[in-house]
Amino acid sequence: MAAALQLDRVSKTYGQMRAVENVSLTIQPGERVALIGASGSGKSTLIRLASGLILADRNGAGSGAVHSFGVKVQEGGKLSSEVRSARRHIGLVFQQFALSGRLSVLTNVLVGALGRMNALRGTLGLFNADERRTAYAALAEVGIAQHAAKRARELSGGQQQRVAIARALVQGAKLVLADEPIASLDPKSAKRVMDTLVTMSRDHGIALVVSLHQVDYATAYFDRVVAMNAGKVVFDGPASQINAAFLTELYGASAEELILPSQFVVPAPADAAPSTQTVS
């Protein structure tokens, strides 16, 4: 089976800044991967490149290609003619939810069905009974079916994020890319959203890539972690290898963004033995 996501030597430059540099990455169907890194490391840019929301640099022949389940998203700085087909099975979950606040929760979830509808029916919002049943079932699965008739803006942040997850279920996504989905949530809501994402992935066999600032969530919920720094992948391996000392080695002072203060290892001078001192 083709990879859920395949990036081949993908780069992205903004002016003089290289946000992503020559990244190659493979995510298998059903695999769950945490993407970590300090601010400006390139996580969000990589998510947007993977979904075709932004175009990669033209780096040369055969590079800058993104495929999902064997369907080309982009290559050589251009969107593929197959991109619409590819996007049908790529679900997106954003930090700020990307919902229409004035529309009902149910209608926001039904948006996930638009890719399978003809243009006229989609434009007019003419959803049939089967589509509505599917949307209600998705809301029930994420635990908020009782809010279906409310406007999205009436829900809490954690509830809105679960609406976005339900939308991906209705879409029939085989790959979900979640960009900092818990960054603006309180700890209780963040845990509920992470539980929902991982349960969705496990129960439906959906590949899941989640970018996170909070490394404790990455190690608690994922077996594989990809760490980025200055636009490059600096680690790709088991979550069990991630700890405060390792993060300090990778990121230096920037590791403070990723780990709890009580876990932060004070970097030792270059000529000294490794230190185990922590800041409380």
From TrEMBL:
SUPFAM superfamilies: P-loop containing nucleoside triphosphate hydrolases. Pfam families: ABC_tran (PF00005). Keywords: ATP-binding, Cell membrane, Membrane, Nucleotide-binding, Translocase, Transport. Gene3D superfamilies: P-loop containing nucleotide triphosphate hydrolases. Residues 5-255 form the ABC transporter domain. Transmembrane segments: none annotated. GO terms for molecular function: ATP binding. InterPro entries: AAA+_ATPase, ABC_transporter-like_ATP-bd, ABC_transporter-like_CS, ABC_transpr_PhnC, MetN_ABC_transporter-like, P-loop_NTPase. Belongs to the ABC transporter superfamily. This is Phosphonate transport system ATP-binding protein.
